[in-house]
Design goal:
Helix content: 40-55%
Order of helices and strands: HEHHEEEEHHHHH
Strand order of the largest sheet: 1-2-3-4-5
Keywords: Endoplasmic reticulum, Membrane, Transmembrane, Transmembrane helix
Family: Belongs to the SPCS2 family.
Subcellular location: Endoplasmic reticulum membrane
InterPro entries: Spc2/SPCS2
Protein name: Signal peptidase complex subunit 2
Number of domains: 2
Length: 216
């Protein structure tokens, strides 16, 4: 169980904590992270900050009249950089939280959430197996009081994504792959302990057996 407690009602905290855990997990499996996209984003952000700071310093030391032309240029440059930053985030990165390579297989993982929906949506693109989306509720790996539990999260990923399962066979529950990747709503919603037949039909078979004996 993780040591950091978050608010289980904050989608942003749930997503950010899970994103961080995903990156740490894949790096631990020897996926060599490609930071090209992150480096470009940071470069744009730092350039914007430098322009803003330089403009403020020049105006403070030299005054408005001496710097107004350069200030106008800086404002335009700042606006362009912010536009580039927004474009990069939404059109290039598209929610990408990890890109890495292991044994020649490159994977890219993008995450997202939807408003008022405590579900983690992942899109995994792999050079070897194409693209797929998997989803799971955050309650799969977060406790009710907001602690992250790594084991079920790792099992979900290793059992749902071939490239990750190949790198972490001990957590790749092959015989439970479908159940972990997309739990059956019938199983989850069936009342237990009240005589209602469960998803396997066990109670129904037992009743049928008793009727047969009475008829005999």
């Amino acid at each position: 169980m993780g040591d950091t407690k978050i608010s289980p009602h904050s989608l942003a905290e749930l997503k950010n904590t899970t994103d961080d855990a995903l990156g740490n997990y894949l790096r631990g499996l020897k996926f060599e992270q490609d930071n090209t996209r992150l480096d470009v984003r940071l470069a744009i952000g730092y350039a914007s900050v430098v322009i803003a700071a330089a403009t403020f310093a020049a105006d403070y030391k030299l005054g408005w009249e001496a710097t107004k032309t350069w200030t106008a240029v800086a404002v335009v440059a700042y606006a362009l950089l912010n536009g580039a930053f927004t474009y990069w985030m939404w059109a290039v990165e598209k929610g990408c939280v990890f890109t890495g390579v292991r044994e020649g297989n490159k994977i890219s993982v993008a995450s997202k959430t939807k408003k008022h929906d405590p579900t983690y949506y992942l899109t995994i693109s792999s050079a070897n197996s194409g693209s797929k989306q998997i989803t799971a509720p955050f309650t799969t790996w977060f406790t009710a009081d907001g602690y992250f539990v790594a084991k079920p999260f790792q099992q979900w990923l290793a059992s749902s994504v071939e490239a990750i399962g190949n790198a972490d066979s001990k957590n790749a529950l092959r015989d439970q792959r479908d159940e972990i990747a997309s739990p059956s709503p019938e199983v989850e919603l069936t009342p237990q302990g009240n005589g209602t037949a469960d998803a396997s039909g066990t109670d129904g078979k037992a009743k049928g057996s008793k009727r047969s004996k009475r008829k005999g």
